[in-house]
């Protein structure tokens, strides 16, 4: 080939390559811009999906506390914040307690919640409600996002993502359009539904309403005097077909309870595991609950942590009727007072806050 032709051929090849590179770069830039715009739009839409008001209230209040002013902390899922009212204990012992349970809280989140507590507080007692359904679940992105919404600690959040998130979830969480797409589409769907209902005047039938009230009261506790609806006695009860024989806790969930136990031992904190009661009608549906109880008891025993199972106590002693529950799984305030009274007796009998009792610092029996 003639040198001039060879030079022209090389120039065309280089031009073609340069054009391809520029096209790729332009595509990447445009894609990044689109992703950024979409991510911002999706993120803004999530602001319409209100953070659980009660969760925000309990964490906001906790962050306002003076350093090292808390004596006892309650952690766990909804079964924790529907069982333990700090006022019931503070009035008895003259202590300062706080409820930091969050919806669907799994043991990994419980561990990181405790780390957040220990940044500003030095509790003498930590009470963790261990609900079996939170010990056999796979990773739950929604409960992690709810926790991050109130965590206020970027370093701890990054550590949580690194240690707890499965690889695929890490990737999806880092890409905002993917992270927020569920919230975005949920918001858009609700807007479309609302628009259609207003246009055609067709609305969903009213849901069965609970008589009573529910409101955030103090120290992380939400007061509720609802009584379980009749539908949850049978029609919608979530415990139908549950068999304790087939239940197994996931090793990674149990491992976080072990980490919690080790952390509390290092800090000189007394740790207590508790399983809150579910409604009697729910227990009647469950087969082989004793196998669930035995597995949780063995776990606690191996970690040298005291364990109280109020389902076992209630089933054997018939302490709480269904009227003491707001739904098929959670106590109302009437039931809370009963269980808290029993737990208060346990603390007294086992020497917790004995120095305050000896010094007469308690304000009520």
Structure description:
By secondary structure, this protein is α/β, with parallel strands linked by helices. The protein contains 16 helices and seven strands. It has helices at 3-46, 53-63, 78-81, 86-93, 107-118, 141-151, 154-164, 167-174, 176-179, 181-200, 251-267, 280-285, 289-302, 310-317, 333-349, 354-358, and strands at residues 72-75, 97-99, 125-129, 214-218, 221-224, 270-275, 307-309. The strands form two sheets. The protein has a five-stranded parallel beta sheet, sandwiched between helices. The chain has a two-stranded antiparallel ribbon with strand order 4-5. A hairpin with a 2-residue loop joins strand 4 (214-218) and strand 5. Helix 1 crosses helix 10 and helix 5 (107-118) runs parallel beside helix 11. The longest helix has 44 residues, at 3-46. The radius of gyration is 26 Å and the shape is globular. It starts with a helix and ends in a 7-residue tail after the last helix. Mean pLDDT is 85; it is low at 45-50 and 184-188.
Q: Topology, pairings included?
A:
Blueprint: H1 3-46, H2 53-63, E1 72-75, H3 78-81, H4 86-93, E2 97-99, H5 107-118, E3 125-129, H6 141-151, H7 154-164, H8 167-174, H9 176-179, H10 181-200, E4 214-218, E5 221-224, H11 251-267, E6 270-275, H12 280-285, H13 289-302, E7 307-309, H14 310-317, H15 333-349, H16 354-358
Parallel strand pairs: 1-2, 1-3, 3-6, 6-7
Antiparallel strand pairs: 4-5
């Amino acid at each position: 080939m003639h040198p001039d032709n060879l030079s022209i051929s090389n120039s065309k090849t280089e031009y073609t390559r340069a054009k391809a590179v520029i096209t790729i770069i332009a595509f990447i830039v445009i894609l990044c811009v689109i992703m950024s715009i979409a991510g911002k739009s999706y993120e803004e839409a999530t602001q319409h999906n209100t953070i659980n008001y009660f969760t925000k209230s309990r964490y906001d209040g906790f962050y306002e506390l003076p350093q090292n002013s808390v004596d006892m902390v309650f952690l766990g899922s909804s079964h924790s914040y529907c069982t333990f009212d700090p006022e019931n204990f503070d009035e008895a012992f003259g202590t300062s307690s706080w409820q930091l349970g969050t919806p669907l809280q799994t043991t990994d989140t419980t561990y990181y919640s405790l780390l957040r507590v220990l940044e500003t507080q030095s509790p003498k007692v930590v009470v963790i409600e261990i609900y079996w359904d939170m010990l056999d679940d796979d990773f739950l992105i929604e409960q992690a996002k709810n926790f991050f919404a109130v965590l206020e600690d970027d370093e701890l959040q990054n550590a949580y993502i690194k240690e707890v998130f499965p690889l695929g979830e890490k990737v999806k969480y880092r890409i905002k359009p993917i992270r927020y797409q569920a919230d975005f589409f949920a918001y858009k769907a609700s807007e479309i539904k609302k628009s259609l209902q207003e246009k055609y005047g067709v609305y969903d039938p009213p849901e069965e309403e609970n008589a009573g009230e529910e409101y955030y009261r103090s120290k992380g506790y939400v007061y509720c005097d609802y009584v379980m609806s009749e539908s949850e006695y049978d029609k919608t009860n979530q415990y139908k077909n549950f068999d304790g024989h087939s239940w197994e806790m996931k090793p990674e969930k149990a491992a976080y309870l072990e980490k919690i136990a080790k952390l509390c031992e290092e800090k000189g904190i007394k740790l207590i595991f508790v399983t809150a009661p579910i409604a009697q009608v729910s227990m009647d549906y469950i087969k082989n609950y004793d196998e669930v109880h035995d597995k949780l008891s063995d776990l606690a025993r191996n970690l040298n942590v005291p364990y109280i199972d109020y389902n076992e106590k209630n089933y054997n002693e018939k302490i709480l009727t269904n009227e003491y529950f707001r739904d098929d799984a959670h106590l109302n305030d009437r039931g809370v007072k009963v269980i808290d009274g029993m737990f208060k007796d346990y603390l007294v009998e086992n020497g917790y806050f004995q120095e305050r009792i000896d010094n007469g610092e308690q304000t009520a029996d």
